Every structure is written in structure tokens, then in C-alpha cells.
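Hello support,

Our group uses your service weekly, and this is the first time we've seen a run hang past the timeout. The protein is non-specific serine/threonine protein kinase. I'm not sure whether the cause is the sequence or the server load. Input pasted verbatim:
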Amino acid sequence: MASPDPETNFVEHELIVRRFNRGTLSERQQRREELVQEYQRMSIVQRDRLVKAIYDVREAQKRVIRAMNDALDFWHDQSMSDQIRGDRMPMDEDMEKALGLQDGWRREAVNLQGGLDILRIAYTHHDFPETCIDWVQARYEEMGDVITDAEERVEMIEASLREDAAIQQFIDESLDEELFDGDWQGAVDLGGGISEAGLWVKIDEDGNVVDRIVFKREFVDITRWNTSSNVWHGNPQDPHNRTPLEYFLQNKCNAASPEHFVKLRNWSQDMEKHALNLYVEYCAGGDLRGVEKKYVSNKNLRIPEPFLWMLFLHLTESCLVMWRGGIERNHPDWDKQIVHMDIKPANIFLASADEKKSFPHYPTPKLADFGLAFETSPNDANNPVDHRFAGTTPYMAPEQHGYTKWQLLDHTNVYAIGATIFGLFHHRNRRLHPEQQISAEDPDTKWKFSTWSSLMYSSELRGLIEQCIDWDPSLRPSSLELRERILSAIATLRDEKGEYVRDGLRGEQPAISNFDLVLAREMYPLGFAIDSGDVAADGELVAGTAGAGAEDSSGMSLGMVARSEDEEDTNMSGMD
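Update from on-call engineer: The timeout came from a worker crash unrelated to the input. Re-ran successfully.
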């Protein structure tokens, strides 16, 4: 296709520069004719210089954009190859390559701007028509926008590189030798919102994994470091006689029921960084969010209903423990109830199945991340005032939003587990979930259940979910009532899934069935040989068909940055 002639180039550019391409058709045609006449009044020399100016600017534009895209393509290709190969170039080589490409397009941009300045001066000295100077000025401004956009995009690349470098630095850290003996090595970054989190593995003399732990670093605002009772249990001003409130509450629950709560194995405080270092029990099945995403990505799968019943019951029992310290009876020293404030799939972890318990072939759900949790009672004068607006939508109960004066108590935990099961119930239509958060303007609005989910899952399960997410907390069942209703529904649940759930409760869950749960492969299983260079990190493991520790050659190497997927929910507290 032939390029436009110089006259057409001039006319089209001037129509845009002078904004002559607006107005009625007849007005635009008249302006076009005026521009043609203006061009024809130029001398041959002026026309030649104008044509060269247009060509030079266009070529410079192409060079800038091409150089900029080279830098962006490099970063994209490198990231994609990371996902495909599972390895990556050393961080310094990545940084050098990206910054080198960045310098290239910046030099082109400087050359372009300098060239435009020279052209403007040349036109002035040669008494060029004002339109030529205007045209060059417009191109200058246009390229300024392109350059600004390119700078912003490359700044994003630099930020990503810096983030990866910071993650790598975190993974390269050694665990506190006063707390952990032996050879511990950082293995995989797990992400953590504004905090840092990663998996560390302990290696024996033969190079085999013998222990695993999650190292989580949470940064605390300096204004709260020595003052906040929401950060510390004990005297916040005494570094020697205080314990992170998160550590205290989570381990209090874990001590009451280890099969329902993730244990925090130790902690330390970094006085310089104003950070809490938490050392967390590793759960081989990852978190519930990962399970949900795996099923969302495969339209041929649906989360088996028996697993939802088991999860619903287990989470309800967790709420019972937070309320009264026990499942079957009250704990005598449990004088206050604990409100978690952030129950959601990302904070529910899946430990290895326990063959001596009910549902021996499903992973054991454990609640964690008590960073927003607090102790309270119906007589607490500071409840709800001191605890509103924290949590993650759409798992926050109406009372967390501050719509009402209702206190945050056991019914708040019940709402969150109902919202969690609702989301899993609708995993085929995840868009439905965030849109269902009830607002104060219309408190009678009910959460909508999709037709597909209502056909795939039982009405009994749906009915119990609806009870949990009632706007009015007085209409929600307590965790004790909810447990009784779940067990009652299971006792009468029809069809094959009913028999399966009842068998699971008795500890007689079949090892292989249509109700198996698809899990992510376990990372660094115990006994795994680090020297092999392979890490079980991706792929699928079907609960009930393979034991924990099944291996997979993913090509990942120890200490590599392998970030988990970003959290999609909005955490209103800014914490995860």
C-alpha cells in the first residue's frame, strides 16, 4: 500500500493539530481546502524540509516505541518462561538486561526531543510558515505523552524487579538460630499482602527434607508498635513481657483444638524494622483459596458436595471453640469469646488428612491468620465501636461495616463461614459472590443463588447457608445451633452423597470415589531429596487416590522466587 503524499500528510496532521477535524462536514471540508492552499504556497525547499521533518519524527517515534516494547517484551517473555521452565536467570542479569533496554529507549527519546528542538530552530531561522513550527510542537508534545507513558510502564518493570529482588532477599534469610537449630533454607515465596511470607525447609545431612515451616513477617505501624493492645497481649510498652496478640489468640485456640487451628510454632520481634516474625505450622494442602481457583479454572470439575459438608461442619466447630473453648462442652477458663474478623478461603488451610479421624481421605481444614481477631463478651463496652470496618469483603458481616449498633460476637463468625461456603457453592460463577454483599440501603435483600449451583447442590446445604448470612444477627443460628442443624441435615441427606458423608463422619470414607477432592501437589514433602533439583509444587493430587508426599518434577529450584497468586478479595484493613 502506497504511503500518503506529502501534501496529504501535511493536511491530515494539521487537521488534528489545529483541531480542524471538528464541526460539520462542510466546515471540515472548507478547512481542508484552506490547508491545501497553505501547503501549495510553500516553496519547494520548504516542502522538502517539511516532508523530511514528518519522516524524521515518524521514524523517531517508531524507534522509541520499538525500543520501549523490546524492554517490555523482554520482561514479559522472561516472566512467561519462568512459568514454563520453572527456573530463571540470576536476578542481577535480569536487572542488567531490563535496565540496559530501558536506557536504550530513553536515549532514543532524548535524541527525538533534541531533533525536534533543532527542527523548530531551523524553521524559525528559515522563516518557515507558522504552521510548520506548530506541527513540530504538536509532534513534540505527542512524543512527550508517549515518553511519559513509556516511563510509567518501565517504572512498573523496575518496581517488579525490585519486588522480586526484595522477595529473593527475604527467601535468602536464615531463620533465627536461637529458635531453630539445623540447616534451614528458604524455598518458596508464598506472598502475604503487606507482610512477607515464605516456606522454609530443614535439610538433614543426606540432603532430605525433614521439617517445614512458614516464616511470616508482619510490619507494624511505628505509632502502634509500643502502644496498641490490638497488636500485643500484655504490656505493649514492655518488649520483654509482651506477646503478639495474633500469636496468643491463635495458639489459645490451637491448644483447645489442634485439628481446627493452625499452630504458631514460635515468634520473635524485630525492633529495628518494627516487625513481628511469626513461625507457622506448614499445611501441605495450601489454602482453600487455591482449591477454589483450581476448580474455577477447570469447567469440567465441581467441588464435591461431601467436602462442602465436611468443611461446613469443621468451620462451625472452629467457631464453637472460639466461642466457648470446646465443641462438646464449655472450657472452664474460657471467659471471653474470640471474634476472628477475617474468616475467608485464604485464611483456611488444609493440613494432611488424619486417618484416625472422621473423613480420613479429605484434608483437615484449619483456621489461621488471627491478625484482626480480638477477645470480647456481650458486656464489652468497646464492642462494636473499637472493631468496625476491619475484614475482607464479601465475608464481612453487616455489623463489621458499622451499618448497625449490633455487637461483633459468635454470630459474626457464623456469617463469615456462611459467606465462605456460599462462595464455594458458586465457584462456577465467582462474579456473583462479590456483588452479593448486602448494603445498609436495602437490608432485606437476599443473596442470590445461581440456578446452576442450586441444581448441582442440595437444598439442605443451600438452606443452611442462607441461615448463616441473614442480615440480622439475631436471626442467624449460633455456632452450637448450626452444628446441630448440620448434623441433623446430614442424617437425612438423600442419595449417594448422603451415604458418603455419613460414612465419612464415621471414619469410613472410601479411599476412591466420585467425591474425591482435587488438590495442589504438596511442596517439598518430608523425605524429599533436595539434590534431585525437583520440587513438588504444581500439578494435581486427588485426595483419596494418592498419599501425601506424592512427587512431581516441576523444575523449581530451592530458593527461587515463586510467588503465589494475588489475593482477589478486598481486605479493608490492609492486612492479610
